[in-house]
Structures are given as C-alpha cells and as structure tokens.
Amino acid sequence: MIDSSLKDIAAALRDRKVSAVELATESLARIDAGNPKISAFVTTDRDGALAAARAADERLAAGQGGPLTGIPLAHKDVFCTEGVLTTCGSKMLANFVSPYDAHVVSLLKAAGAVMVGKTNMDEFAMGSSNENSHFGPTRNPWDITKVPGGSSGGSAAAVAARLVPIATGTDTGGSIRQPAALCGITGIKPTYGTVSRYGMIAYASSLDQGGAFARSAEDCAVLLSAMAGHDPRDSTSLERDSEDFGRECTPADAQPLAGLRIGLPKEFFAEGMEGDVRAAVDAALAEYRKLGATTVEVSLPNARLAIPAYYVIAPAEASSNLSRFDGVRYGHRAAEYGDLNDMYCKSRAQGFGGEVKRRILVGTYVLSHGYYDAYYIKAQKLRRLIANDFAAAFEQCDVIAGPVSPTVAFGIGEKSDDPVQMYLSDIYTIAVNLAGLPALSHPAGFGTGNLPVGLQLIGNYFDEARLLGTAHRFQQTTDWHLRAPAGF
C-alpha cells in the first residue's frame, strides 16, 4: 500500500480498507528491513508514530480526515521535533532533543500526517552527497556504492526505497532537487518565503527553503500545500493566502501543454553535462514537445557566476548562524577545558565536522574587515544580476528547463578530497536559490549504470502550481517516476 499514490492511499484509508496503524506499522517494518542497507534514517519514532496513527484512525472514523491524514512521513533531521532527537547530522547536536516543533512539523501534524522518523543529511545541510553526516553516509538505493545527493539525501533515499511515501527536505543551493534527481523521485523547492523557516536549523538564512519529496509531482503538490503558509514567527515568511498547489494537476487531454513555452538556457547546454545526462534530458524535452509545448532558447549570462557568489554568501551567513553552537546553552560541550574561551574552542573543534569548519572559516574571512566590500558586497551584487537574468528570460518563456546535475550519482568517496568538484555538482541549481525562485526535479530517464537522471523545471515567482502541473502531465505519459530500485 505504501507504494501507491497519496490519492490512492487516502482513498483506502477513507474507505477503511486499511488503517493508519497498519500503514505506520508497514512503514516501520520497511525501515527496519531497508535502512541498514542505505542509512536513510537517523532516528525512528515507533511509539510516536503508532500514537499518531491511532489518532488519525479516530479522525478518519469520525469523517474528519484530509488528504494527508494517516499518511506515513519522514522529516529531514534539520526540522525541530518536540521530544524527538534533532541532530542536523552533526556531533554538535547528536543528543539534542528539541523542546518545540518547527512550523512545518506543526502544520503536518495538524494535517494528520504520521511522522515515523528523521532522515540523515549532510551536517548542517552543508554538502552535495550526504557524506558529511556525523552518522555516516546515506547510500543511493539504486546502487549502494553511490551517493544519493545532498544535503537532503536521507529523505530522497527513503522515498526512493519506498520506506515512506513522502518526506520533507530543505534546499539552500539544490539540496532537494539534486538528491531527487540522483534517486529518481520528484522534489520541489518553492519560492523563498513560501515555507516557514521557524524551527528549521539555519545554514544560510537568505537561501534556505523547505520543500517536498514524493514519487510524483501530484503527491509533491499535496505535501507542499500542507507545508506552506504564513508564519509570523519567521520574518521572511510571505503573507500570502494558502493555495492548492495541485490545482493544475488535471486529467490528461490531447494537447495538455499547448501554448506552454519552455526556455532552454544556452549556458545549461554548453560544456559540463555528461553525454548520458544530455541524452535523457533531450528525450524528456522531446516528450514535452509531443505534449504541445514549444521550446525557445534563452540566456542566463551570469549563471556561471552563481557558484562563486553562492560560496561567498552562504558561508558568510553560516559563520553567523553557527556561532550559537558554543557549548554553553545546548549541544556538544568538551569534557575538559581550562577557561570559557578554551571551552568554546574545544567544543566547536570537537562538535563540527570538516566541511562545516571549512565553510565557517571561509565565511568569517569574507566578512572580516577589509574583505567585506571586496567579497561579500560584490557577491550580493552578482546575486542581483542573476535574478535580473531570470526576469529577462521569463519575458520569453513560461518555465525554464535543463539538467539538475551534470552527472548521474557518483561513487561514495569519489569527490570527498576535492571540494571544488563537489561544489560543481550544484552548478545548475544554485542560481535558483540566489534568485529565490521555485524549481523542481522530476525523473527523466536513466544514464550510465542504470542510474536515474532528473529534469529541472524552474518557474517564475509563485509559479509552483504551474511547475507541478507541467511535471504531472509529463508523468501521465511516462513511467520513469513509477520505477523503483531492486531489493526494496
């Protein structure tokens, strides 16, 4: 049952063909069997899940259930969960039990979703491979010698392996879209400010955004609709009415995308994309043309500057955000120290991993006197140029399409000693975060080693429904999103 669409699961729950307790039990059993292979979960909450499932069954029996009531769900371990470990993939928070729920967690509880556990991630969401976790790497269900992508790799792997039907994630520079692509599922990052960051442990505050993972665009729409909404506790939360992001996921017709203009940035289709990825992307675009869409060439001339701009802005914000982890109030504290300053130094040295320390150092450097204007201010100016490029492109098209990752999933350890090559994994995704735009990845085929390839769709501000509807129509005529890795 857990392998079905959310619509089918919800119908079965409503008709009492299956209970929420049975679904939760099935999901927990799948996690017990599958998680030792891929390490997608850091924590499972069996007692909490079964209690929530019993409450969901009561609501359903009273005729009060919604589209997510009784549905098993996993949260990326960056979202605070009351009474349950929230580690952020770090030794610094390995024993931290949050006293409150993130806004996203509260909304999904209210919707009746049943949280079964918390998923593995790159430490403090810093990484593109899920190898930076204090709890060890998550493995790609399609090939356990490969990475699942990061930083939300645990959530993507859990959905791909059918351990849960849906999961939350966060995207700072591609951390939903890239794992979705490498694991062969659908993932969406909405417009910045659509999903509250309250209770979401911060990496780079002007870039971080919560989003959704599921097998299909239609299922992502259901989850995102429940997650989104204004939150006065988050100063960057947008004051917008709730909306149904699945309103354009309509039944198929003869030419469902007639009139849709898909922009193809020439910069995305130049050097850098591997041949197998290019072949899958081209085939997906051909399918869109069959559905009635037209493709036009557009240009994002400053896209090449996205990575250098991002790796100034994001570490600068991380340097500030992570200063709160000092061993005093919560988190890891060194067992032995001489004075207060020594406690700070030893606690942070022991509690943070290598990649986090690297980004803190870079961020502190670019914010220091004499370098702030030369690096940070210049990066912010580039950010505006990148946003302007997207605005100009959307005058010629309705959505923008291209690759998510230049390669299929790479081997665990393959890029660990080369940070620059690791950072280049996000070459097609980072510009979207700098501009604050919505974007999704959906399965588009397979490449070398029978590993999944994703297609990225980028929309204008608040165009989530159009993106999801476009991907849904593609998924009505293809079956890439229905394919599952063997052994799960």
By oligomeric state, this entry counts as: single chain
Summing up helix and strand content along with how strands pair, one would put the structural category as alpha/beta
Low-confidence stretches: none
Q: Going across the major beta sheet, what is the strand order?
A: 1-3-2-4-6-5-10-11-9-7-8
Task: Please compute the radius of gyration using only Cα atoms.
Answer: 21 Å
Share in helix: 25-40%
Set down the secondary structure blueprint:
Blueprint lengths: L5 H9 L5 H19 L2 E4 L1 H16 L10 E5 L26 H8 L3 E6 L33 H8 L5 E5 L6 H7 L2 E4 L20 E5 L2 H11 L33 E5 L9 H16 L3 E5 L7 H16 L18 H12 L2 H14 L4 H22 L5 E5 L15 H5 L6 H6 L3 E9 L3 E9 L4 H14 L11
Parallel strand pairs: 2-3, 2-4, 7-8, 7-9
Antiparallel strand pairs: 1-3, 4-6, 5-6, 5-10, 9-11, 10-11
